[in-house]
Design brief:
The chain has helices at about 10-20, 20-35, 115-130, and strands at about 45, 50-55, 60-65, 75-80, 100-105. It has about 140 residues and is of the alpha+beta class.
Length: about 140
């Protein structure tokens, strides 16, 4: 994959081993929050070399800055694939240039607001439940 500069992770372990320590800690905390709060029917899958979380469609993703092509150079991005549909009353997410994916970039674990993430995840899961199975 040219856009990935030759990087193609075959497993979550390969992805994990690639990350620098500071990103690994942030990814781990975000991943645990997501896995703890998504329904058991949701799946974790590497897509574009980063973890995506799927229900009927993509719900959210975690993109570390060290993984090429993501558009961020530092920190770890937590993106909501249907972010434009979320109410986000506290304006926790950045609306950036992408029309659908709204996100938050973390540079330390201390910046992670679990309560805000859980609230957004619950709303994102409700939207996902409204989609027909498949695409």
């Amino acid at each position: 994959m040219d856009f990935q500069k030759g990087i193609k992770f075959q497993s979550f372990v390969e992805f994990w081993d690639f990350l620098p320590e500071n990103e690994r800690i942030i990814v781990d905390v975000l991943r645990q929050i997501i896995l703890k709060n998504l329904p058991e029917t949701c799946k974790e899958k590497l897509a574009y070399n980063v973890p995506y979380y799927y229900g009927k469609r993509r719900i959210c993703l975690i993109w570390p800055g060290s993984v090429p092509w993501g558009g961020i150079r530092s920190g770890v991005l937590l993106g909501f694939c249907q972010g434009f549909k979320l109410s986000d009353p506290e304006n926790y997410l950045t609306h950036g240039t992408n029309k659908q994916v709204y996100y938050k970039i973390y540079h330390s674990v201390d910046e992670i607001d679990e309560r805000a993430i859980v609230s957004l995840l619950k709303e994102a899961v409700k939207f996902d439940a409204g989609f027909k199975s498949g695409k």
